[in-house]
């Protein structure tokens, strides 16, 4: 399955003092992503070295289905709810080529 997973990683810079609100809203609207039939899951992580920086990773069954979601009305509504908290960001896409499970799994 790893060779078919399409991964998207967003780096988001959040406006100072708005981090807690951003996290709350991200959780509230997250099902608009995870509810898509092609989504395999997503994670929100906070950078411990740079204030206000978050990473969102989401896995998809393939790139075409992600691109379909990316241009959907649902995704636009999701982005609009998070936009007030952002001061910058970037997106990286990739294909998972291998996965090694850790001993704790």
Structural write-up:
The protein has 105 residues and is an alpha+beta fold. It has a single domain, classed as Alpha-Beta Plaits (2-Layer Sandwich). Helix content is 31%, strand content 33%. The chain is built from four helices and four strands, in the order βααββααβ. It has helices at 19-29, 31-34, 63-70, 73-82; strands at residues 6-14, 39-46, 53-60, 86-95. The protein has a four-stranded antiparallel sheet. The longest helix is centred in the N-terminal third of the chain and has 11 residues, at 19-29. The protein starts with 5 loop residues before the first strand and ends in a 10-residue tail after the last strand. The model has no long low-confidence stretch (mean pLDDT 94). Residues 6-94 form the ABM domain. InterPro entries: ABM_dom, Dimeric_a/b-barrel. Its EC number is 1.14.-.-. This is Antibiotic biosynthesis monooxygenase family protein. Keywords: Monooxygenase, Oxidoreductase.
Itemize the secondary structure elements and their pairings.
Blueprint: E1 6-14, H1 19-29, H2 31-34, E2 39-46, E3 53-60, H3 63-70, H4 73-82, E4 86-95
Antiparallel strand pairs: 1-3, 1-4, 2-3
């Amino acid at each position: 399955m790893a060779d078919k997973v399409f991964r998207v990683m967003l780096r988001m810079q959040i406006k100072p003092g708005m981090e807690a609100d951003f996290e709350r809203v991200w959780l509230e609207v997250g099902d608009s992503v995870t509810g898509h039939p092609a989504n395999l899951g997503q994670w929100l992580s906070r950078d411990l070295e740079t204030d206000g920086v978050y990473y969102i990773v989401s896995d998809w069954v393939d790139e075409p289905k992600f691109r379909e979601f990316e241009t959907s009305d649902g995704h636009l509504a999701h982005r609009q709810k998070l936009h007030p908290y952002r001061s910058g960001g970037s997106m990286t896409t990739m294909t998972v080529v291998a996965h090694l499970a850790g001993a704790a799994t």
